[in-house]
Each structure stands twice: as C-alpha cells, then as structure tokens.
Amino acid sequence: MASSFKHVTGAADRDSRIVKQLEFYFSDTNLPYDKFLQAKIRLNDGWVPISVLLTFKMLKSITRDSAVIASAVKDAVDSIVEVDETGLKIRRKPKIAAPAPDRRLFKDIVQRSIYCSGFPRTTTVDELLEFAATFGDNVITKTTPMRFKSQAFKGSLYFTFSTKDEAEKFLARESVEYNGMEIKRMWESDILGDYKAYSPFNYE
C-alpha cells in the first residue's frame, strides 16, 4: 500500500510536540546511550534543568521558552516525564525506570528501526514530527544515527517503532512519499553494517 504525506501548517499541536521530543530524550531508545544526558541526571536525582535541554536543537526549534516547556509537561499527566515544583527542571518519572544499556536492548532497538532518506534538507522539525505521526502515535524519530552528532538536517532520519512487526509493516509499504518525493527505506541494521565502530557494543 502506498503512503503519501503533505504537511498542513499549524496542524501539529506545539505542546504535544514538546512532550514527544522530551519523551524521546528520556526514552528507552535514547537515554541508556546518551552519555551527556546520563551525566546530567546523575547530578540531581534525575532532574535536568530545562536550560540544559534547550541546548538540544530539536527542542529549541519548537520553542525557546522554558515556561512553555514546563507548562506542556505539567499538563501531560500520562507522560513518562515530569516537571519539578519550580518549573525549571524535568526528569523521567522514577516509577518508570529506564533500562540499563546492554547489547540485547541495543539490538532490540535497532531491529525496530528503519532508516529513511530523501527528505528535503529544508524540512523542519515540526514537519518531520507530523509526518512520523501519520504512521502511529508511538513512532520515535531521530535525525542522525545513534551516537552520531550533526549540526544540520541531512535529509535522512530513523523511525523506531514500538514493535518489530510495526517496523516490518512500514517497510513493506509499496511506497512512502513526502510532498510527492519518494522516501527510500531500509533497516537500521543494514546501515550499522557499515558503521559498527559507532555502536556502543559489538553488533551481531
């Protein structure tokens, strides 16, 4: 089945995008392997200043207002993240403990992730998040391979699905288009075959 997408300006809700981006930072997919964020959460019982989170380009592209971020998280009662009483810090809820990083978890994440390329380099974060949402509420996106850092969007990103079955269904689509442009798709494991040195473990 073919899938196409055309961005509708203003269709995505700002607060929802803020929470979704924060949930990615503190997710099982990212947090166990994010050394910078791990160092920050060890300093203060898991709390990370919003000012630090605003150094992350994806969140900063949605809003630079810490009060807006605090309000969005406060209203998202079912989220995995929470804001402190001062409205200045955010953490993953202690009752939802993050898994420890290990080879099995890493392989599980990779086996649920699809590399997608062919997006215009001018595509905004809002547009990418809205596009991802058309394939499910729990699709996580990252614009660079795990452990890579990039200063600009290069036209490719990864979709990490809740299950491998969902990822397989996405890959099995006859075609996926973004604003009339065909999006190429392949397993992240195929990409890692060329980038094993960047894996936190010996990927097999």
Automatic annotation (TrEMBL):
PROSITE patterns, alphabetized:
HTH_LA (PS50961), RRM (PS50102)
Give the UniProt keywords, A-Z: Nucleus, RNA-binding
* Domain RRM: start-end pairs: 112-186
Q: One Pfam family, please name it.
A: La
> Residues of the signal sequence?
none
Residue span(s) of domain HTH La-type RNA-binding: 8-100
* CDD domains listed in its UniProt record: RRM1_La
Location(s) in or outside the cell = Nucleus
- One term of GO molecular function: RNA binding
Per its UniProt entry, which superkingdom is the organism in? Eukaryota
Q: Which GO terms describe its biological process?
A: positive regulation of translation; RNA processing
Q: Does the keyword Ubl conjugation apply?
A: no
Name any GO cellular component annotation.
cytoplasmic stress granule
- Which PANTHER family does this one have? LUPUS LA PROTEIN HOMOLOG, LUPUS LA PROTEIN-RELATED
Full protein name: Uncharacterized protein
Species for this entry: Acyrthosiphon pisum (Pea aphid)
